[in-house]
């Protein structure tokens, strides 16, 4: 069953039923101010850091779902009836409803008893505020006397503290109302430099800033006292729960519309700014008054929305394609690229499934995400790389996560995930291939964000490999540490005496458990560092890292091959994991895909055999499961992976993140049909018709789909913030479509389905626009290129002469 449809012309997903299986969200904001916004106006906002600078409150695991958000109430003053055009929170039956999720904005509309209201939510480019642009229309034959109420509930800044420390926070809330602007100044007494504000373009009939006054005793957001009675109480919050609510009265003639702009924002004064009078607790609002005046004028709101559209037009224009498959087109051209920008902004910190409290930005996550967004925002990708490298330790290891505001590593997570350092090399390599900016390698970057420890970024990359070389296990494979890419595969467990209970070394350095997956990853990263060293003019390093890759490849072949597929690991006892010798968990997806990406087994048939085993044992109609058979009971020697029920998450769920590794592997082996088939199985657009089963948004990829062992096989979880976004975009654009940036030019080497007669693409690469036409003349993958009318050898289009801004490429597959 479908709950909406794609509007490909406007680049919007149109939701026509509010009761979606899960909250179907969008993100507003693209720089420092961000918000989660559901199709029913739920979600929350924050500045830079979802934990440390939370503006509005979010409630998770709540029943009914998705309570708390950016609410508008429309009240008929004659009858006392009211409704929410977003359906939530009133949840009354609407005569019409629609939500249009677009690029950085959402428009939510509802109609009841002849009154229509539409709200356009967005964050202007360059501003630290969000706009609620409301239009109310009287479609009745008679005049209407209406009241419009807006409300947002403030969070007490640190979301973790807000959710737990009630004994303090019920006494700290403070607001100030000046010139009909509500200032949320909790913490101003301490920090004296930051606050939130809420204002309207219209003269107010009233306001509230205390939640209990607005809602009334023992009432909820679905039936607030202020709305039911049609009047606000001018409440001022002293402790307890500060909110911002505006009341605007409207008298509309038949057919008349009125527009009211509400806006919620954040402001931070310079830390050295003086206060007048000295010691005053009054908000120093001078710096924000021009912004408030600006957005009280609807003309400036329209200009800001137009600028937002131009912003997204520019980002998405970097890669546009037209193929025989509508799902490939809409994902590559719009939604997958858009999701990649969300993972750039959020990593894994704030979504319907991530509270914004438990994580900041992930080291492994953000490096992989570079694959999907570096071509859109290369200058911001550069800074992200430097921030990530600064959380690395002198050993070459790294904090697993860090907070985006402080840029400090999260000590409660720490390091010990032994795959992490390799992803820095892969992320930097992708940046260099895209931009040619080798100056980044000379940037001085500290270790553990500690001043005085700075070394060039290139040295950080070398230490990433050295960390792996310093952590080699009994078989010569890399030690897994606390875990590798699979955070739940925790193999460092032991028992002091036979028959005694096991103990896990979580957070400690295990010296026996080894990862075949990291072995494949190390081959890949060492090859990438060797190629980077060649381009950087370091021939000795080029040779050294090529040797590291060759040596590890031999180890993987010797100790990581199980006859039909690559082993997954060796546990702390030296037992094989992911082997035909195991009773459960015989074969895992990760090493099959990644060892092929690394080039292991391409010449001796192992690569083909490994991927054939994936198809035989792991592939399902809903995607490729992580392992088979599922673990039927908890096994402490394997850790968290076996704590999940069969078919969910890491225990034989379809972990969509690593499906693209197999997709890429199939293209490397020349099998475009299989590659695109696997792509289509997890593609959200292609799954739209089964939304009742899939549950998550049909316009963005999910982290996980329940596997064949699960009672809910095909049900998705953890949408938006997942490495699936970058990896599927990378697999589709650079391997299936084959448009791949390299150090010395743009490679055009498609591996497409045999049923496709070709495709066209526009790719902006290093400031040059490449117009690419691919035509099929045979069923193979051999490529012949013509560049600006001239035939060239190979499949790499060299850079054009200086000053040339467009190149025409014609490719023929045979």
TrEMBL record:
<dbReference type="InterPro" id="IPR011013">
    <property type="entry name" value="Gal_mutarotase_sf_dom"/>
</dbReference>
<protein>
    <submittedName>
        <fullName>Glycosyl transferase</fullName>
    </submittedName>
</protein>
<dbReference type="InterPro" id="IPR052047">
    <property type="entry name" value="GH94_Enzymes"/>
</dbReference>
<dbReference type="Pfam" id="PF06165">
    <property type="entry name" value="GH94_b-supersand"/>
</dbReference>
<dbReference type="Pfam" id="PF17167">
    <property type="entry name" value="Glyco_hydro_94"/>
</dbReference>
<dbReference type="GO" id="GO:0016740">
    <property type="term" value="F:transferase activity"/>
</dbReference>
<dbReference type="InterPro" id="IPR033432">
    <property type="entry name" value="GH94_catalytic"/>
</dbReference>
<feature type="domain" description="Glycosyl hydrolase 94 supersandwich">
    <location>
        <begin position="11"/>
        <end position="281"/>
    </location>
</feature>
<keyword id="KW-0328">Glycosyltransferase</keyword>
<dbReference type="InterPro" id="IPR010383">
    <property type="entry name" value="Glyco_hydrolase_94_b-supersand"/>
</dbReference>
<dbReference type="InterPro" id="IPR037825">
    <property type="entry name" value="GH94N_CBP"/>
</dbReference>
<feature type="domain" description="Glycosyl hydrolase 94 catalytic">
    <location>
        <begin position="311"/>
        <end position="738"/>
    </location>
</feature>
<dbReference type="InterPro" id="IPR008928">
    <property type="entry name" value="6-hairpin_glycosidase_sf"/>
</dbReference>
<dbReference type="InterPro" id="IPR012341">
    <property type="entry name" value="6hp_glycosidase-like_sf"/>
</dbReference>
<keyword id="KW-0808">Transferase</keyword>
<dbReference type="InterPro" id="IPR037018">
    <property type="entry name" value="GH65_N"/>
</dbReference>
